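Why should sequence recovery work at all? Because a backbone constrains its sequence more than one might expect. Tight turns favour small or flexible residues, buried strands favour hydrophobic ones, and helices have their own preferences. The token representation captures these environments compactly. In the example below, the structure is given first.
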């Protein structure tokens, strides 16, 4: 019995995580699956006037208006190709941990595969790309490098204010209102 307790007290074994893989051009990227709410086919979007070119528009989903960004256009100034594997991926976006998560749509090319690995397999790649803070560490495998995209770092303050003008109310706050 003490041997079981000793094993429990040992440092925990890191769990493998699931990632959704996609491509921007020929490069591979990954989103942590816990950040993904749903994977949808590409849908028609209503454009947003005077928004940055990589803000693809909005669409109505389950009673909410959801903003959508084209990750290819954001990253390399080229819109995502309209392929059968191009998806609209709903993610849980949170500007900071004190706010409730909101839906944000991402247009992603070839978003059809997953990867299960240890998050620690992703390592810093030695560049400080302040223009793309959402591009995180990389992982090498037989197919080359795959880069982790951090959802909560996708939007700067000005675009966040355009797409999410008011912080969402917590459900407890809604109940307390007359």
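From this structural description, the recovered sequence reads:
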């Amino acid at each position: 019995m003490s041997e079981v307790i000793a094993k429990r007290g040992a440092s925990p074994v890191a769990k493998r995580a699931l990632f959704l893989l996609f491509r921007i051009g020929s490069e591979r990227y990954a989103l942590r699956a816990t950040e993904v709410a749903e994977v949808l086919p590409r849908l028609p979007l209503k454009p947003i006037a005077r928004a940055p070119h990589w803000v693809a528009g909005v669409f109505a989903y389950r009673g909410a208006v959801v903003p959508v960004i084209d990750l290819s256009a954001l990253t390399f100034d080229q819109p995502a190709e309209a392929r059968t594997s191009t998806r609209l991926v709903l993610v849980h976006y949170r500007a900071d941990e004190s706010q409730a998560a909101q839906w944000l749509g991402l247009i992603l090319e070839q978003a059809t595969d997953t990867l299960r690995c240890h998050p620690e397999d992703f390592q810093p790649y030695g560049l400080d790309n302040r223009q793309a803070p959402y591009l995180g560490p990389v992982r090498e495998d037989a197919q080359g490098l795959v880069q982790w995209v951090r959802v909560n770092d996708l939007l700067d303050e000005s675009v966040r204010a355009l797409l999410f003008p008011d912080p969402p109310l917590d459900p407890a706050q809604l109940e307390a209102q007359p």
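A few observations help interpret the result. Residues 11-159 form a domain with the OB fold (Dihydrolipoamide Acetyltransferase, E2P) fold (CATH 2.40.50.180).
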